[in-house]
Design brief:
The complex is a heterodimer of chains A (about 325) and B (about 500).
Chain A (H helix, E strand, L loop, with lengths): L1 H34 L9 H11 L10 H20 L15 H21 L3 H32 L4 H9 L7 H17 L18 H4 L5 H26 L11 H27 L9 H24 L1
Helix pairs in contact in A: 1-3, 1-9, 1-10, 2-9, 3-4, 3-9, 4-5, 5-7, 5-11, 7-9, 7-11, 9-10
Chain B lengths: L11 H4 L7 E2 L2 H12 L4 E8 L2 E8 L4 E7 L5 E3 L9 H11 L2 E3 L15 E2 L6 E2 L18 E5 L11 E7 L2 E8 L7 H5 L4 H8 L7 H15 L6 H29 L3 H22 L8 E2 L2 E2 L5 H27 L1 H7 L7 H7 L3 H5 L7 H4 L20 H24 L17 E8 L4 E8 L5 E7 L6 H8 L7 H8 L4 H4 L1
Parallel strand pairs in B: 1-4, 5-6
Antiparallel strand pairs in B: 2-3, 3-4, 7-8, 9-10, 10-11, 12-13, 14-15, 15-16
Helix pairs in contact in B: 5-6, 6-7, 7-8, 7-14, 7-16, 8-9, 9-14, 14-16, 15-16
The chains are: A mainly alpha (about 325), B alpha+beta (about 500).
């Protein structure tokens, strides 16, 4: 019986992230539009876009290999699984015991690996540019992510997100410099991973400046829908991750009652809304950085992560 | 041996009011002119062919004089200027495409505007029907280790004009950029031939949509000079108001668009509102947002009413109040300045050599403005400053625009205050003999040249329209070298050359 309840919670979580991801993207776009004095598309426009893309005929390059066709599904599946592992409204998710923060990082990395390969598959110059830039960014973002994971794991005593969230809610967790540094580093990594300004511009029409968009330029219809959906999911994933580690209040514990779950969902929605608005405000107030500034930016995240874990040892050895 | 400089003798006071004389030269003097251009004593204003004659418009910037030299009776070829002076190369390739006169010993014999898809060849010369298949266009070779090519366009991801850019890059660093243009060739110079003055005006206004006022003013100047028409003072002031509104709208648009290319969408939105205000005011006052077909030979087609004056005064006041806030936002956004400062540096020598007009030249130390150097009415009666800098990067081109917006606001204000009364259009007489005239106007991009030859019946024998972009496109290629590929859109937008005006 407990297993069924666990599976039900896990199922709700999986459906929830899928349902909310396009809405979050829509919210960010809407707020950005309002900030630049535009009406902006409706909040549910991303859903309509996905539906429209699914209905369209797929156009493939003559020399596209099986990899090119399979990648969108791989990327979507990997991102969805990763998103399902982050506690959104409740800790103690059934699947989350089988995978920790490192597994989530690895899932996202493999999705990117395939996407970069697919970008080069048809041999257009933009795909190549996009892939090379994406991998450059990833090669800097991933070490930073690992350092953040170490810091948090050292503090909470586990790399398991449910345990981390439970620890953060407990009175043992206090304010610490390391946590602050890890938060800043995680925000930087999230910006880079999600191809947001100032690292990349998801709304650009300038093919020469694109990173993520250049890589997926050759995709159409259902393939593009999968990739766009995966991108929305990834944004949701990072926001959930930050919320779960740094603002875990409202999360329902394992085996809590329906009321706690409902409260968990409401607070989760509020957290997402706040996160989405913050992204939009940040993106509106800053210009994109030069491509070669990105390593410095992400290098900063790595150094912060490193500093955070070193500080822990300094504190412990006293 | 007399210097070629004696042929560059026309003061603005002379060629603005009377037909433009041409100096017939022989091949030796023609080459001498080429050498003077190469030595930097003269600046090339234009190079075009009419029948079997090639004409070259020259500017002596030190003395503020211009002149046209003509080399006649050519049998299929003429001595190349491009072999001495690079800015002439594309103009000569165009002459070969359009008129069939080949430049001798030219450094580049590839076609330029003619992509082999017109169905005819040499539309301005000996017209031949040719359905020869379009030949592959060889781009300039690049040699070196680990280079790769990136073909961009002619169809782009955004809604912009078509042009092909061939990048050769080493990683992210651009080693060479070569542009191929001509995709929006409309055959304007052919269509204009044999037409009446009205048709000429219509077509001149459709060469480049964003500078329609400047193009039509240059054309009207050429007509008025050829036929020695005295334009009423009120019409001149209204023309200046329209030209400055056009400059204002375009500079505001560019200011926002450059920032948007650095993903700073806020500025595009804010500047876009101001630009829209300008266009709406233009629509209210002159019946067309871009004021197309408002400047006509002899004057203007729409008078400015008292309500119009009030509308424009309110517009100037509104922009004066809101624009400084945008400038402050630009100047205080470090992430934006990080993108524009030191990006796309144009050397002053190149700006001078190519005679780059507008913000491109003035941001790189070429302190030249037709409104001041070759003044035309009513600018000779108005007070304004020509901003110039020599840092030559994207930031400098942004700041020249900012300064020019301030100057335009002041100019509109002055025109509105001292707007004379009287008629706004003069009669255009029929000369009864062939006449030639030149028009030279400062558009928002730089100096627009129109050369017009009328036959005895008053019809257009030849009209040559030279957009400022002719001398700016090649510089864009120079500017992007050693920059990174991802900075090209920013450099390109800071130049904002016209495809349509260039491809004609």
């Amino acid at each position: 019986m407990e297993l069924i309840a666990d599976l039900a919670v896990q199922g709700v979580q999986m459906a929830l992230v899928l349902l909310l991801a396009p809405l979050l993207t829509g919210l960010v776009r809407k707020v950005k539009a309002r900030l630049t004095r535009r009406q902006g598309p409706s909040l549910i426009q991303p859903y309509r876009d996905l539906l429209r893309l699914l209905k369209k005929e797929a156009v493939l390059a003559h020399n596209a290999s099986w990899l090119f066709r399979v990648t969108p599904y791989l990327v979507f599946a990997a991102t969805w699984v990763a998103a399902a592992l982050v506690p959104t409204f409740a800790t103690g998710l059934h699947f989350s015991w089988s995978a920790d923060l490192i597994a989530i990082t690895a899932l996202l990395a493999s999705a990117r690996f395939f996407l970069a390969l697919a970008g080069m598959d048809v041999g257009t110059s933009f795909g190549g540019i996009g892939s090379s830039r994406e991998v450059m960014i990833a090669s800097l973002a991933e070490p930073a992510m690992i350092m953040i994971t170490f810091t948090i794991a050292l503090i909470a005593g586990s790399s398991q997100l449910s345990t981390i969230a439970a620890f953060m809610l407990s009175p043992e967790a206090g304010l610490s410099v390391s946590l602050g540094l890890a938060l800043i580093a995680l925000v930087i990594v999230a910006i880079a991973e999600n191809a947001r300004i100032p690292v990349d511009n998801p709304a650009t029409h300038l093919e020469l400046t694109m990173v993520h968009e250049a890589m997926v330029l050759e995709y159409s219809s259902r393939h593009l829908a999968m990739i766009e959906f995966a991108a929305s999911l990834k944004l949701l994933l990072y926001l959930s991750l930050i919320a779960c580690i740094f603002v875990p209040w409202g999360l329902a514990g394992h085996g809590a009652g329906l009321g706690a779950y409902a409260f968990g969902i409401v607070t989760y929605l509020a957290k997402l809304a706040i996160g989405g608005v913050l992204i939009a405000v940040f993106e509106t107030s800053i210009a994109k950085m030069r491509v070669f500034r990105v390593p410095e930016f992400l290098g900063g995240a790595f150094m912060l992560g490193l500093l955070a874990s070193l500080l822990l040892f300094v504190v412990q050895s006293q | 041996m007399t210097s070629i400089l004696v042929h560059v003798d026309q003061l603005p006071t002379a060629f603005r009011t009377a037909p433009m004389p041409r100096h017939r030269v022989d091949a030796r003097q023609w080459n001498q002119a080429g050498e003077a251009l190469a030595a930097g004593e003269l600046t090339l204003l234009g190079l075009w062919a009419h029948g079997a004659t090639v004409h070259m418009a020259l500017l002596d910037q030190a003395a503020n004089r211009i002149g046209i030299v003509s080399l006649g009776n050519r049998r299929g070829s003429f001595p190349s200027i491009g072999r001495l002076h690079a800015p002439a190369i594309r103009l000569e390739r165009t002459i070969a495409d359009m008129s069939g006169l080949e430049p001798e010993d030219a450094p580049d014999s590839r076609p330029w505007l003619d992509h082999g898809r017109w169905g005819v060849s040499h539309p301005l010369g000996k017209l031949e029907t040719s359905w020869a298949k379009a030949k592959p266009y060889p781009f300039l070779p690049v040699e070196g280790e680990s280079l790769h090519q990136i073909p961009v366009g002619p169809v782009h991801a955004g809604i912009i004009e078509p042009g092909h850019f061939r990048f050769t890059a080493q990683g992210e660093t651009v080693v060479r950029l070569e542009a191929r243009l001509g995709y929006v060739h409309k055959g304007i110079e052919k269509l204009i031939q044999g037409g009446d003055l009205e048709r000429g005006m219509t077509l001149a206004g459709r060469t480049s949509g964003d500078s329609t006022v400047a193009c039509q003013w240059a054309y009207a100047q050429a007509v008025e000079a050829a036929l020695a028409v005295k334009v009423p003072a009120r019409a001149l002031y209204i023309r200046a108001i329209m030209a400055e509104l056009e400059r204002l709208a375009n500079h505001l648009g560019d200011f926002g668009a450059i920032c948007n290319d650095a993903a700073f969408a806020m500025m595009l939105a804010q500047a876009g509102v101001l630009r829209e205000n300008v266009l709406r005011a233009a629509d209210t006052c002159f019946g067309h947002r871009f004021m197309r077909d408002c400047v006509v030979p002899g004057g203007v087609s729409r008078d400015l009413t008292a309500e119009g004056v009030a509308t424009l005064q309110a517009l100037v006041a509104a922009i004066r109040e809101r624009f400084p806030k945008l400038v402050a936002l630009y100047d205080n956004t470090a992430s934006l300045l990080d993108r524009t400062v030191a990006t796309g540096y144009l050397k002053p020598e190149l700006a001078r050599q190519f005679g780059a007009g507008g913000f491109v030249g003035r941001a790189s130390g070429r302190d030249f403005d037709v409104r001041r150097n070759l003044a035309y009415a009513p600018y000779d009666e108005l007070a304004f400053e020509v901003p110039a800098r020599d840092d030559g990067d994207v930031n400098a081109r942004v700041w020249i625009r900012i300064e020019e917006i301030r100057q335009s606001l002041s100019l509109i204000g002055q025109c509105l205050v001292s707007l004379p009364d009287g008629p706004v259009r003069a009669e255009i007489p029929v000369a009864g003999e062939p006449r030639e005239g030149i028009g030279l106007v400062e558009g928002f991009r730089g100096d627009i040249l129109v050369w017009l030859a009328l036959d005895a019946k008053g019809r257009i024998a030849r009209c040559h329209l030279r957009d400022p972009s002719w001398f700016q496109w090649p510089l864009l290629e120079a500017v992007i070298e050693d920059n990174i590929v991802a900075d090209f859109p920013l450099c390109n937008k800071s130049f904002n050359c016209s495809y349509s005006g260039h491809d004609l």
